[in-house]
Every structure is written in C-alpha cells, then in structure tokens.
Specification:
The protein folds into 2 domains: 255 residues, P-loop containing nucleotide triphosphate hydrolases (Rossmann fold, 3-Layer(aba) Sandwich); 167 residues, Nucleotidyltransferase, domain 5 (2-Layer Sandwich), CATH 3.30.420. Helices cover 35% and strands 20% of the residues. It contains 15 helices and 18 strands. The protein is elongated.
Length: 454
C-alpha cells in the first residue's frame, strides 16, 4: 500500500452521501486507501486495483470515485471503459441517475460510440467506452477506470495508458473479479497487476482484494464472509447458499472464482523447472518391450476433446511396469478400441481419468464395456506416484512420441494438499501423460494377477 500523508477518502464518502449514495464500511476503506495523498497533494497511488467477487458493490465504489473527480478534484475528463457495451451503458445509467436525483445540471450524449455525461456548470465529463485497440487515442484523461479488468487486453492498455501522461495528477483504476483462465483468456494484464500488488514491489500501486485461499471449503461460513464484504449490506448468506446449491453439481469451479475469489490465475513468472528429468525419462525407454499379458487400460481426453488417449500398463521387464499409449483425434474411436482390446487381451479394468473422459461413457455403455471412474484424489495420487516411479526407474516405456511430448511439457499445480497435472494450457495435448500415469498407478493397485473382468 503506498505511503500517504493524508487521504481525500473522507471527502469522497461525504460527497457520495450527499448524492444519496450510502457506502458500506468496506467501500469506505477502499476510498480511504485509494485516495491517499502525498505531501504535495498528488495521489500516493497512481494505480489502484480492486478485486472482489460479484455483487458486493464494486460499482458503487467506482461511482463515488467518479463523483469525487467531477465535484471535488477538478478532473475534467474521466474515461470509464468496460469490456462489454451493455456494461458501459449500465454504468452511465447509474451515474446519470445519481446526478438527476440530486438536481445537478448535466447533458447526456447517448449516440453510439459517443456515450458520455457533461456537467453544464464546469464542462467536466465522463466518457463511457468499450475497449478497442484505438479507444481513447488522442485524448487526455485525469482518471481512467478499467472495469471488467479480467477481459483487459494488452492492446487496450497501450491505447489507454497514454491518455494519462499529460495530466498533472492522474489515476488509473483496475476493477474486476478473480481471473478464471477458461473464461478470461485475456486475464494476463489484471493478473500482472495483482502479482505486483501481492509482491509489494510497485510503490505507487494500491491493490485491494477480497478472496479465499485455494482449497477453502465452499460451504465454510467464515470463507464466505472473508471473500464477500457485502454480506449483510448487499448480499444475504441465504442467497449465497442458494447460489452454491445451484452451481455445486454443474460449475463448482466457476462458483469458487465468482463467489469466493479463488481464481485460476495464469502464472506470469519464470517457467517452473521441468517436472521430469529428460535424461532419466529417456533412459527408461525400451523399444523392445512387449505388450503385457495382463493390463489396466485408462482413458484420458484432452481438455478441448480434440485428442484422446488409451494407455495400457502391465508387468514389464526387470520388475518394471511397462506403459504404452494409443492416441488419435476426437473421442468416437475410444469405445470401439476398448471393446477390441477387452476382447483380445486380458484386461484387469478399464478406467476413466479426468472429467473430459466421461464424455465416452454413453459409447462404452453401448459397446458393453464396463468401466470405473477415478476420483480427483486418485488422480492426484497417480500424478505423484508416476513422478516417483520415474525417479526410481520402476517404469518403462517404448518411446512413443505422443507420450514423450506430454512428459516433456508436463506441469503440475497444487489443489489443496494434492498435486495434480496442470491441464490449463489447451494448446498442449496432455492426455497421454494423464492416461499413462493413471494406468501405472491403477496397475500398481493390483495385488496379484486377476482374471479379466469383461
């Protein structure tokens, strides 16, 4: 948090109340921190980042800041940008309602692409825009609000940042909720702001975040209160419970990001070291290894379902477990292939690893192939066990390119106390690694050779 001599937060809060905008305690805290002043009267924070779960009242903070800019700080041009047009228009509607209800004289421009509010007394204005590569070029702004910052592209930043350069005391706000890479592919800018805020190495950045640590229980009342400062003011605990019930079986990860602030933030730091020692993996290659007499078969599917893999693991040479893979585009080939393998070989079990693999269940049922589904905990155990098996040289492979590539590009992440394969990069097909590690793990659970189950 930037050091400040004084703060204009109290004045901004009082002004908001005069306009009928009553702020919650947490919103007042944000304004006190964001409007800290240096000894010369300039803002102590050039950048302000605010990250909260949805519906906690973030927009009211923005409105209070814009009112203060118009009536207290002498800011002549405020640029309010959003990812979606409807969000920008709604922000304009809310600010206009505050001005209208107070009797303040203003002019509103609703022409598409020219939306804005101008005060008749001073000419101070707030422009409402959606973000493009050319947005705000050639303009100067005293305050820039970047709402929906989870969707902020670097090109938009390049267009907006220069608007502040010619102003004597500018301020730039980033506001949004936790980034989920699957939903927010342009979340790297907001992530970068957050990383700088958490590191504390940007002296003029004020970062404020309400969230829970990864692994927090979605039903824990304390976690819900920690992440949602608007509870008791704008949101009820009953509503949050109803929301969880609605999403727990359909999109729990999305709910964790939206409601508890547990995002799937991309990593912008240096790449982590390789998971596997490539020399060790290469040394485990035995191109003469034969398919095992008895095996466990595991299905894994790429996150975008563009590729699938069936891995077989069984007893290899020198007491090792041998693993082989069959990969192909799509998923329709999987059930016929499994039916063929079950018919022709001694298969101990067929297992599905990962949520995407469940897409083949109807085909397996039609083909009469029995199956088991690995739990998330078992998948984590398989991830760790496979790494240890490679280190201990108790596994061997036949040098298949698809598995070699997946091993070379392997990444892991912690989810709670469990290590899992990091499957967030959909440009890489990691299904061979997921299937192979699960197959080695499941075969290791077979205490003795068992008769075929099918």
């Amino acid at each position: 948090m930037p050091a400040a001599v004084t703060s204009a937060g109290a004045e901004a809060i009082e002004l908001a109340a005069d306009f009928g905008l009553a702020l919650d305690p947490w919103q007042c805290d944000v304004l006190h921190a964001a409007l800290g002043e240096c000894g010369d009267g300039r803002w102590s924070a050039f950048e302000v980042g605010l990250c909260t779960p949805r519906q906690n009242g973030k927009n009211s903070v923005i409105e209070a800041r814009e009112l203060a800019g118009l009536f207290l700080f002498g800011e002549q041009t405020i640029i309010h940008s959003a990812h979606e047009f409807r969000t920008a228009v709604e922000a304009m509607r809310r600010l206009e309602a505050l001005l209208r209800d107070s009797g303040e004289a203003y002019k509103a421009n609703r022409s598409h692409g020219e939306e804005g509010i101008v005060l008749k007394a001073t000419g101070a204005r707030v422009l409402f825009q959606t973000r493009t590569k050319a947005a705000a070029r050639g303009m100067s702004g005293d305050l820039v609000i970047l709402d929906e910052a989870m969707y902020l592209q670097p090109a938009s930043m390049q267009a907006l940042m220069p608007t502040l350069s010619a102003r004597p005391n500018p301020q730039l706000w980033y506001t949004g909720s936790a980034v989920d890479q699957k939903v927010h592919p342009d979340g790297t800018v907001f992530t970068g702001v957050r990383e700088r805020g958490l590191a504390g190495d940007s002296p003029r950045l004020c970062w404020m975040e309400w969230s829970c640590e990864e692994g927090a229980s979605p039903t824990d009342r304390a976690a819900r209160l920690q992440a949602n400062p608007g509870i008791g003011y704008r949101i009820t605990e009953e509503y949050i419970e109803d929301e969880w019930q609605a999403f727990k079986n359909t999109n729990p990860d999305g709910w964790l990001a939206e409601r508890l602030g547990i995002g799937d933030w991309p990593s912008l730091t240096e790449s982590a070291p390789p998971v596997f020692d490539q020399a060790v993996w290469d040394a485990l290659c035995n191109r003469d290894a034969e398919a095992p007499d008895e095996s466990v078969l595991v299905v894994a599917v790429a996150q975008d379902r563009s590729w699938s893999c069936v891995a077989a693991a069984g007893r290899g040479g020198a007491g090792r477990t041998v693993v082989l893979c069959t990969s192909a585009p799509g998923v329709t080939w999987v059930a016929p292939k499994l039916a063929e393998l079950v018919e022709q070989h001694s298969v101990l079990e067929v297992v599905l690893a990962g949520d995407q693999a469940k897409v083949v269940i109807p085909d397996l049922v039609s083909a009469g192939v029995g199956y088991k589904v690995m739990t998330r905990g078992e998948q984590g155990a398989a991830c760790a066990a496979f790494q240890e098996a490679v280190k201990a040289s108790t596994v061997e492979h036949v040098g298949q390119g698809e598995l070699n590539r997946a091993v070379r590009n392997a990444r892991v992440r912690m989810i709670g106390e469990a290590e899992q394969w990091d499957r967030r990069d959909q440009q890489l097909d990691d299904s061979p690694l997921v299937a192979a590690s699960a197959a080695v793990f499941r075969f290791g659970l077979q205490e003795a050779p068992l008769p075929a189950l099918y």
